[in-house]
Amino acid sequence: MIYAILIMALGAVVLGASLGFAAVKFRVEGDPLTDKIDAILPQTQCGQCGYPGCKPYAAAIAKGEADINLCPPGGADGVQKLAELLGREAKPLDAEEKPKQTALIDEQRCIGCTLCIQACPVDAIVGAAKQLHTVVDPLCTGCELCLKPCPVECIAMNPVGESLDNWKWKPPVFTLQRQA
């Protein structure tokens, strides 16, 4: 009798696991240091650092295979934050720091080829084949990857004007003095 109950219980567990109802789910965690580095990076996925995106660059930094100063969109502020996180010396940016910019498609010249849509790593360009394409400004990271594949050169990069939303204001640093 007890063997029958054990066999039925084992059968229920096997059946539940095969149907996806397992009580134990396995999850593969990433490297915590890579995740912290990736959180600092600007998530432009532009490849200007020489890696195919921010996560691979973060993994290379965590392994000590890449310098922390290769990300132009992250700028000097990004290099400083990475240096603080990793306890390294902040080096000057290895490339020219660019102002924030977004892509702009000239609607009169766009032929709807979809090559820019395929090139955009963050899905900021929307449109359909043989139809007008447009850029969703809040999603565009300014990576410039859409420029090269455009056969009619109808995409230009527009600097983003300074506003309250993107102003690089930094609060003053106050130090508290304890009185004896």
Overview of the molecule:
One of its GO terms (molecular function) is metal ion binding. Belongs to the 4Fe4S bacterial-type ferredoxin family. RnfB subfamily. Part of a membrane-bound complex that couples electron transfer with translocation of ions across the membrane. It is built from five helices and four strands. It starts with a helix and ends in a 21-residue tail after the last strand. It has helices at residues 2-18, 32-40, 54-62, 75-86, 115-119, and strands at 101-105, 125-126, 134-135, 155-159. Helix 2 (32-40) crosses helix 3 (54-62). Among the domains are: 32-86, 3-methyladenine DNA Glycosylase II, Chain A, domain 3, CATH 1.10.15; 99-161, Alpha-Beta Plaits (2-Layer Sandwich). It is flat. Residues 170-175 have low confidence and may be disordered. The protein has a two-stranded antiparallel sheet. Strands 2-3 form a two-stranded antiparallel ribbon. Strand 2 (125-126) and strand 3 (134-135) form a beta hairpin. The protein is of the alpha+beta class.
Helix content: 25-40%
Q: What best-fitting shape do the alpha-carbon axes yield?
A: flat
Order of helices and strands: HHHHEHEEE
Q: From the alpha-carbon coordinates, what is the Rg to the nearest angstrom?
A: 25 Å
CATH topology of the domain at 99-161: Alpha-Beta Plaits
**What would you call the structural class?**
alpha+beta
Distance between the termini: 78 Å
Low-confidence stretches: 170-175
CATH class of the domain at 99-161: Alpha Beta
| Content of β-strand | 5-15%
Q: Architecture of the domain at 99-161, according to CATH?
A: 2-Layer Sandwich
- What's the total number of strands? 4
Physical arrangement of strands within the biggest beta sheet: 1-4
Average pLDDT for all residues: 82
